[in-house]
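fyi for ur records
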Amino acid sequence: MSYETVYAIASGKGGVGKTTTTVNLGTALAQAGERVAIVDADLGMANLAGFVGLNPDSTTLSDVLAESASVDDATYRLAENIVAVPSGTSLDDYAETAPEQLRDVVDELRSQYDAVLLDVGAGVSHETVLPLGLADAVVVVSTPEPAAVHDSTKTLELTERAGGEVTGLVLTRTRPETDVSYEEIADQLGLPLLGTIPEDPAARESVYAGTPLVVHAPDSPASAAYRQLTADLAGVDVLNDRPDGGSESGSGSGTPPADDSDASADATRDSEAQQDDVSSAITEAEAER
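which gave:
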């Protein structure tokens, strides 16, 4: 395992696969034998509970931040090596939270788990900025879509203001033929390209199945990409001795029934027109920074 323990998985734009990335990174790490906690740090638009089979009316991170429950009360074992800390889904839950308490929550989880993955809300708000400064490393998730790339620059600015450090870029829903290389997108954002996750119909299927992609379709291209990303990012072996007898993936057997509505967003796009606009969008974004 690399020296980083707490990762903030962030995006400037919603619907790019941020929570899908959080869940599949966490699942792959758990399969490799790491003790993992995934935390719904999107306090305003929480959705993790429903996607890992938890009752959103149960004790949540919102109760912890309102100082009416302990971290243990809001921590739920999903499967071997992995737990989830969901947030409340009602406006009342959100109104009563004190986001500043998240620091204590992260410190407590850091002491108990090998990896803590914070699913950070999109947009610009206090509760969005806070986790970016608490994490050891921020992973920016985007599609190659110009609007998503443009909004990634805002995440970079917010991370800098929060005193955090961006470790690199993950591009989701990529396609094999593009006019602009994905390395070029990362370079123009000034970030290392940590990995690309290809467009994959299995991702949508895994959402409806309520199972992480790396479990639902372990041989799919996107699953292989998530395992490679996990191995490269965290320095663990998740590429061999898959439980189903295959030649890749993690060695653990239990995984949470989780995924993200991000992945169920309509992925039908005009790829050529999208890629034609990427360079100009990045240039414009850089000029605004």
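Residues 6-288 form a domain with the Rossmann fold fold (CATH 3.40.50.300). thats all i got for now
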